[in-house]
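During the reporting period the student researcher (J.K.) took over the structure-prediction task from the postdoctoral fellow and processed the backlog of single-chain submissions. One of the processed entries is reproduced below for the supervisory committee.
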Amino acid sequence: MSSQDIPEENLPAEQDAHGAVGVADDKNPFADPGLPPHEHRVQDIDERAAKRSERVVAMLFTVSMLATVGFIASYVGVPHDKTIYVFPIGHINALNFALGLTLGLALFSIGAGAVHWARTLMSDEEIADERHPIEASPEVRAKVHADFKQGAKESALGRRKLIRNTMFGALALFPLSGVVLLRDLGPLPGTKLRHTMWRKGLQLVNMNTNEPLRPSDVQVGSLTFAKPEGLEEHDEEFQTEIAKAALMIVRIQPDNIKDKRELEWSYEGIVAYSKICTHVGCPISLYEQQTHHVLCPCHQSTFDLSDGARVIFGPAGHALPQLRIGVNDQGYLQALGDFEEPVGPAFWERG
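J.K. obtained the following structure tokens:
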């Protein structure tokens, strides 16, 4: 439909031309051609066409909302290990395909709806504005406010309630996609940071020989590293578990142990402490026989193993956790429970 098909009484009133046409002369060799006559769109002269455009925009915003809901439903309902065949891409992960498709559709629909709204319903009349100083004078501010009000009026946001409501719904619902993605930062840790593999009756195994430890295997002044019985290097969770369960085994003369609880939790002067530094989790490996101090090689945190492994130097925030040990019926060193406090660096939930 064109403006020639519309009766004259339905056409908008002609507005005054903006921008005077200039004439070239010696001082101004480049004449101002002025603005071409404004051509009205179908939506400007036919309310039925405007309503159709309004419904199209509302439909696009509604599709965006449905796609956002589909994104959340895909994230929750599609198995992460499911594979599907999509021509011509081939076999791809079903979850990634569903998330990408729904998220892209939600974004595209919002953009397409906004573009169609601007192209068909918002004012498209060109207006020439004279250049003015950068300084914002009171007149300029008043003009900006007036232009803003005029733009808001011409956008028909208040009058086109269907567009307004569906646009607000699409924009309000879409950010939920980002909130849901935060869930994919990883599984909730639960109480994993508070517990290790150690439990009552689990034998201490030498990390180097992979053999259970007897008290006679630990000499005064020596440093031995141990792991829980049953934990092997080829296990899928080996790195995760050893990062919490690794032990330092040291034998100290009972008379040289200053901490009462440390002595009670030891066996004939053999003490077992976590190997994981309480600063940033580095493995401790340096031991000084005369002072019974252990040193973390990363940031030089120093712990006194004869006095409850308290921190005597460096940035570590608290002492190394001690594991209570004893001997089983076969004469092997065993744990009498798990650590009573989380191993490694402190974390904000730690009580």
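The committee noted the following: The radius of gyration is 38 Å.
J.K. will present the remaining backlog at the next meeting.
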